[in-house]
Amino acid sequence: MKNHLKIWVFVFLLMSLLLGTTQSTTHAATSKRVLGTQFTNGLVSFVQNGKYGMMDKKEELS
């Protein structure tokens, strides 16, 4: 009986971790769509005139 309980707890934790990561990526994708002018993918990038890139100190797309 204890083995079954351990298996169910392990499966529950695994599923909760998987569902948590899918919800966070979905939230990031929707916030990216809502903002429209910037997105983060490891580094912060910006959109200027429809082009993606990094901003330099003069706030121009490099």
Written overview of the protein:
This protein has 62 residues and is of the alpha+beta class. 55% of the residues lie in helices and 21% in strands. The model is unreliable at 31-42 (pLDDT under 50). It has a three-stranded antiparallel β-sheet, with no helix packed on it. It has one helix at residues 2-35; strands spanning 38-41, 43-48, 51-53. It has one domain. It is rod-shaped, with a radius of gyration of 20 Å.
Radius of gyration: 20 Å
* Number of DSSP helical runs: 1
Q: What's the assembly state of these chains?
A: single chain
Structural class: alpha+beta
**Bulk shape:** rod-shaped
| Tally of domains | 1
The counted number of beta strands is: 3
Proportion of residues in helical segments: 40-55%
Major beta sheet summary = 3 strands, antiparallel
Pattern of helices and strands: HEEE
Low-confidence region ranges: 31-42
Mean pLDDT: 61
How much of the sequence lies in strands comes to: 15-25%
**Strand order within the widest beta sheet:** 1-2-3
* Terminal-residue CA separation: 62 Å
Keywords: Signal
